[in-house]
Amino acid sequence: MALSPNFHTILTTSPSPKLPFVTSSHQRSHLAAKPIKTTGYNLSTTPASGEKWRVHVSFFPAFLNKGKDAKVLKEELLEAIAPLDRGADATPEDQQRVDQLASKLEAVNPTKQPLKSELLDGKWELIYTTSQSILQTQRPKLLRSRTNYQAINVDTLRAQNMESFPFFNQVTADLTPLNARKVAVKFDQFKIGGLISIKAPGRARGELEITYLDEELRISRGDKGNLFILKMIDPSYRIPV
């Protein structure tokens, strides 16, 4: 993955600087989800008139149903994205289905203030995105980054995007909270091949909203409309100073 627009769009899809040697453009298995039928208990009683009647009452609190729904929705989402090569093989119909499932999961988000949650801390692996600049679909597969990671440290409000083979590019950024789940992103340092540091220009900025967060999955949406789904791989990871 090229370093500039391709790379930092895990956080955002705002334009970033052109580097002279960057050639790209701006830019669990399958789990069978079984539908859950919510049924209430039938309580029978006999009124004074002798006529029997039933009252349907659910003894399951809303938060229990909510948790059960979130688990099923998450399984359906993971099943939908599993064959899509992180989104590179997604058709418009695939993208629409994934977005619909993500939206349903976002509606039952258990973490209302993700920027105040320790669940956000650590290193995440990108498992799906609609960002073509990250997916690098215009390149031969051999020249695409195999895996992309994003680390966030809430206490320092720092973020880091990392590519794996074949480029190993990195970029770091400062985060400025705009509300309890949205941040402004200002990139400050690119590292080409993990070795050569280049200061990011002032226009390398964007925004990121964290729309779903639990201990193993995160959904985010960028200011250019791209969807990012990530799984937690190392909650202890710290971004190098």
TrEMBL record:
Tell me where it resides: Plastid
Matching Pfam families, A to Z? PAP_fibrillin (PF04755)
Where does the chain cross the membrane? Answer: none
Write down the InterPro entries for this protein, in alphabetical order. PAP, PAP/fibrillin_dom
Q: Which residues form the Plastid lipid-associated protein/fibrillin conserved domain?
A: 73-192, 202-231
Which key words tag this protein in UniProt? Answer: Plastid, Transit peptide
Per the record, the coiled-coil ranges are none
Regarding protein family, the annotation reads:
Belongs to the PAP/fibrillin family.
PANTHER family recorded: PLASTID-LIPID-ASSOCIATED PROTEIN 4, CHLOROPLASTIC-RELATED (PTHR31906)
Q: What is this protein called?
A: Plastid lipid-associated protein/fibrillin conserved domain-containing protein
Source organism per entry reads Hibiscus sabdariffa
